[in-house]
Amino acid sequence: MKALQYRTVGAEPEVVDVPDPEPGPGQLLLKVTAAGVCHSDIAVMSWPAEQLPFPLPLTLGHEGVGTVAALGPGATGFEVGDAVAVYGPWGCGSCHMCAQGKENYCLRAAELGIRPPGLGAPGAIAEYLLVDNPRHLVPLGVLDPVRAAPLTDAGLTPYHAIKISLPKLLPGSTAVVIGTGGLGHVAIQLLRAMTAARVVALDLTEEKLALARAVGAHETVLSGASAAASVRELTNGRGAEVVLDFVGAPPTTTAAGAMAAVEGDVTIVGLGGGTLPVGFGALPYEASVTSPYWGTRAELIEVLDLARAGSVDVHVETYTMDEAPRAYQRLHDGLVNGRAVILP
Ligand code: NAD
Ligand code: ZN
Ligand code: ZN
């Protein structure tokens, strides 16, 4: 089968032929319908060899949907032909976090060598994907698979981040979304669907801000040195109760801290290497800073329910497998509007 692989540290990903996978005991084989392209892969491909936590080659793609093509011996719960979304942050299934459905925070995954598809295990940008356990699958139902694929990360990750701060997102509150790309443009829609907060979106270009407005942002601000002052002005000096940073680079984390309200939440989702100091004088009183990773299986079910209700709709650009390297190049260059999705 064809697969998109990251093969050499620092090189572009390549479309290659690899053997068709066969499901072992308890596993399921999916025929992949669609797979999203996440900026985290760009981060992974920028790491030096000694920082890479898994061996190469790696088949990319951690946002996958497909139909069940075969069940390995003893696998149950699904039938051939079922349309499913893949819950990507695989864990051991039985530790204290996994027992709560929080496999994203599995306590034993590292020790057991369990890695998400596309982030250590073979990923979804391939004709077929092996899934280790039926609990990693959620039925898609009537959802369009192409627009549903990014919900498994670009939907789930902001959904989880927003849920942390729901008690603060009361009427009259302000939520800022920094970076309105794959995750950010879904975050805006989730904020509108789940809260009464006023949503302020920040990005680098007018084109990105136009998408932010189209998906529901009340206000948009060009990101830069004066962005924090603009948010203070929009909030009569109060600042934002919640700042969601989908860039996470030093200039955006600094701006995020500077635009937060007293008792505000600053949530750093982006992997841009930025950090925020805490302690008296560093941030507004009682501001909280957190950096969440992905989301729970239950939350993926909730996100798909929101999509079925029409509350969230991913803006997609589609690519064939042969065009997949170009999708990564465009994402790297900041040119993707919404989410790039590969149709293998
Ligand atoms: P993306 O490239 O689709 O979107 C990023 C957006 O940020 C783009 O629109 C870009 O123009 C904008 N941007 C870049 N620099 C900016 C700045 N200084 N100010 C304002 N906007 C700026 O990326 P994505 O796939 O949505 O991922 C976003 C980030 O989240 C990445 O760092 C990714 O690695 C990370 N991520 C984290 C998790 C997690 O679980 N924590 C999950 C998925 C992705
Ligand atoms: Zn991702
Ligand atoms: Zn676990």
UniProtKB/TrEMBL annotation:
It is an enzyme of class 1 (oxidoreductase). Its cofactor is Zn(2+). Its EC number is 1.1.1.1. CDD domains: arabinose_DH_like. SMART domains: PKS_ER. It comes from the Bacteria. Keywords: Metal-binding, Oxidoreductase, Zinc. Belongs to the zinc-containing alcohol dehydrogenase family. This is alcohol dehydrogenase. The lineage of its organism: Bacteria, Bacillati, Actinomycetota, Actinomycetes, Kitasatosporales. It catalyses: a secondary alcohol + NAD(+) = a ketone + NADH + H(+); a primary alcohol + NAD(+) = an aldehyde + NADH + H(+). It comes from Streptomyces solicathayae. Residues 10-342 form the Enoyl reductase (ER) domain. InterPro entries: ADH-like_C, ADH-like_N, ADH_Zn_CS, ER, GroES-like_sf, NAD(P)-bd_dom_sf.
